[in-house]
Write a structure and sequence with these properties.
The complex is a heterodimer of chains A (433) and B (259). By secondary structure, chain A is of the alpha/beta class. Chain A has two domains: 371 residues, no CATH class; 53 residues, no CATH class. Chain A is built from ten helices and 19 strands. In chain A, helix 2 runs antiparallel to helix 7, helix 8 crosses helix 9 and helix 9 packs across helix 10. Chain A is globular and about 65 Å long. Chain B has a domain of 175 residues: Rossmann fold (3-Layer(aba) Sandwich), CATH 3.40.50. Chain B has eight helices and twelve strands. The longest helix of chain B has 15 residues. The chains are: A alpha/beta (433), B alpha/beta (259). Chains A and B meet through helix 8 and helix 9 of A and helix 2, strand 7, helix 3 and strand 8 of B. Chain A: This is Cysteine desulfurase activator complex subunit SufB.
């Protein structure tokens, strides 16, 4: 048995939970999770050794952040993401653990849409949160899920009632300023026949920060619901990140992910979509840039349970300097999920001979009547493409830039908030330079 | 007026000599055609002029208005005024045709002198309409999923947008049906003026029914073995190449592999 001394004990968790006025069910989840966290093993991302990474040792669980009186007070790099002039904003801003600003259009409030920080949601919609909290991701999957449940100290709750279709995106910005440890939890529930688009940014305000960020996101698309989930992760060097984004679909539901994973620190990213309902669809697009000496592991999985389900995985990664990026793509079709289709494509572009890139496409199929396919490649910028662009007068560096941006376009083009898209392009620009 | 001068050009690929002393001069206002059987070095000549990294010039010179082309990088050659419409254009995912063209135009114009977006769009719309291209082609990824005919039209679109001094069209007619061929020819003819020089590489006379060259050259075994006017192309169409081989005492030999 592996035992780890955790920096926070039962007594701390109890007083933290009580201090926030949390209901008993949540306190109990936390306490049980804490006990399990001491004994459960770390996750085992394929081909990346993480037993020496620090996911558990930190001295402060909370830092104080003053509330903002106006969004104008936000740092410039955060402010550019938000349309401050818009009066009917659907925006949530969190500084470290604390909700700094939240706004939801009146029209959506009237329809019963909930978009608020998790702590408030727990107080005001306790039953609803209880139903979904740590349901898509189980507490006992491994030490980091358990630790997360025990110490969750930030996040958002989104609920879209039955048949409510929201055309404008909901936007969340999580600003990492000085927290040593952020356990951020995002729950998105799209009830039967509803539709929602959610876009989030994780952004550090400093260039380097020794910190731990442990994110769990649970997306529930109930029968006939559609969820589009866009994310740009841009956390600083030195920050060790575990991010788990999980989706669960009902009948004929659809979840689309567009993830721009641009962290500068060591990162374990897991994105699993469980296609439970018949006829449901999971579409995952991920782009990544790795640089410096960072080590990253990206596991994307679509698991088919329902019949006639469709799963698509697209991953494009750029690796430069001495960075290591492992891309595991798993399409799994369970017994009984007949007429399902699992497709995946993983491509890695190596910009440096010292980097390491690895694309591992995996198909696990336990049903005869299905279709599946995969493509994977690891390579350099194609000299024939460079020649073609240069033959039109475009200098080599600019030609390379065009090819790299084109390679990462599948996610960039999907981001529905123009400001966030622009920021993603700028981040890519900066990282590949 | 621009002049492209090729003197005693020898080119090797993977150590094997393909071109064995080509001499050719193309001036602004002139249309030249190079014909010849497959595998005689025609495409090698075009790739060597543009600077394809796999082709090694072992002897001879290429100059554009006296400037040494062989000393230039590929992009510098383009900015100096050369253009190559390729037989097999690359597909580049995620880069739209419009973005690519604007980058190419701005690379020529230089920093601080970029083309205005409005002007660019106007020119692009105009040229695409002229080439009977669907306007959505501007926003599709560069050559990705284009049919053979669409790719060739797109090469001519680039030619018209970039307005080079000297263009080389490498088998621009291959794989085109007669309607597409006419459109491509219309685009090339539109370029004709006293400043613009063009080298048309083909092994079918068909294209030359629509674009009339001022000079026709026959290439065999890595050399230009015969030159003449448009009537030479017609004779080749009617009689094939055997009479030239006989006249010059050439035995069959393939010097370049078709790509």
């Amino acid at each position: 048995m592996i035992e780890t001394k955790l920096p926070f004990d039962q007594q701390y968790v109890r007083s933290f939970s009580e201090g926030r006025g949390e209901p008993d069910w949540l306190l109990n989840v936390r306490l049980q999770a804490l006990a399990q966290a001491e004994q459960l093993p770390l996750p085992k991302p394929d081909k990346t050794k993480i037993d020496r990474w620090n996911f558990t040792q930190f001295s402060a669980h909370l830092v104080e952040s003053a509330p903002l009186s106006s969004l104008e007070e936000l740092p410039e790099q955060v402010k550019v993401l938000i349309d401050i002039a818009e009066e009917q904003k659907n925006v949530y801003v969190q500084r470290d653990h604390t909700c700094a600003y939240v706004s939801l259009a009146d029209e959506l409030k009237e329809k019963g849409v909930i978009f608020t920080d998790l702590a408030t949601a727990v107080r005001e919609h306790s039953d609803l949160v209880q139903k979904y909290f740590m349901d898509g991701v189980k507490v006992n999957e491994h030490r980091l899920t358990a630790l997360h449940a025990a110490l969750v100290n930030g996040g958002v709750f989104v609920y879209v009632p039955k048949h409510v279709q929201i055309d404008v995106p909901l936007q969340a910005v999580y600003v990492h300023e000085k927290a040593e440890a952020l356990f951020n939890h995002v729950i998105i529930v799209a009830d039967v026949g509803s539709k929602v688009t959610y876009v989030e940014n994780y952004i550090s305000t400093c260039e380097r920060s020794e910190a731990i960020v442990n994110i769990i996101t649970e997306v529930f698309a109930r029968d006939d619901a559609q969820v589009f989930f866009g994310a740009v992760d841009n956390l600083a060097k030195g920050t060790t990140v575990y991010v788990n984004r999980r989706g669960v679909t009902g009948r004929h539901a659809r979840i689309e992910w567009a993830l721009g994973l641009m962290n500068d620190g060591n990162t374990i990213s897991e994105n699993i979509t469980r296609l439970i309902g018949d006829g449901s669809v999971g579409d995952t697009k991920t782009v990544v840039v790795s640089r410096g000496e960072q080590v990253q592991n990206f596991t994307t999985s679509v698991i088919h349970y329902g019949k006639h389900t469709e799963g698509y995985i697209l991953k494009h990664g750029v690796v430069k300097d001495e960075a290591t990026s492992i891309f595991n793509g798993i399409g799994k079709i369970e017994h009984g999920a007949s007429k399902s289709n699992a497709e995946q494509e993983s491509r890695v572009l190596m910009l440096s001979p010292k980097g390491r890139g690895d694309a591992n496409p995996i198909l696990l199929i336990d049903e005869d009547d299905v279709t599946a396919g995969h493509a994977a490649s690891v390579g350099r910028v194609d000299p024939t493409q460079l020649y073609y662009l240069m033959s039109r007068g475009i200098p080599k560096t600019e030609a390379e830039r065009l090819i790299i941006h084109g390679f990462l376009a599948p996610v960039v083009n999907e981001i529905p908030i123009e400001r966030v898209k622009k920021q993603l392009i700028e981040v890519i620009e900066r990282k590949v330079k | 007026m621009a002049t492209l001068t090729i003197k005693d050009l020898h080119v090797a690929i993977d150590g094997k000599e393909i071109l064995k002393g080509v001499n050719l001069e193309i001036k602004g206002g002139e249309f030249h055609a190079i014909m010849g059987p497959n595998g005689t070095g025609k495409s090698t000549l075009s790739a060597a002029i543009m600077g394809h990294p796999k082709y090694e010039v072992t002897k001879g010179s290429i100059t554009l208005d006296g400037q040494d082309v062989l000393e230039m990088e590929v992009d510098e050659r383009a900015r100096a005024g050369l253009f190559l419409a390729m037989q097999y254009p690359s597909e580049i995912s995620g880069v739209t045709n419009a973005d690519f063209l604007r980058s190419a135009i701005n690379a020529r114009r230089g920093e601080g002198n970029e083309i205005s977006l409005m002007k660019f769009i106007r020119q692009l719309d105009e040229k695409m309409a002229f080439l009977e291209m669907n306007s959505d082609m501007a926003h599709r990824y560069l050559n990705e999923g284009f049919s053979g005919g669409e790719k060739k039209r797109n090469e001519i679109l680039q030619l018209m947008m970039l307005q080079p001094k000297i263009a080389i069209l490498d088998e621009i007619d291959s794989g085109l049906d007669i309607d597409a061929l006419k459109v491509v020819a219309k685009g090339v003819n539109e370029m004709r003026n006293s400043e613009f020089g063009c080298l048309i590489i083909t092994h079918y006379q068909r294209l030359l029914n629509y674009i009339t060259p001022d000079y026709v050259h026959v290439m065999m075994q890595g050399r230009i073995v015969k030159s003449g006017g448009p009537e030479l192309a017609q004779r080749l169409e009617a009689e094939g190449y055997d009479w030239i081989k006989k006249e010059l005492g050439i035995e069959d030999e393939v010097v370049e592999q078709e790509a």
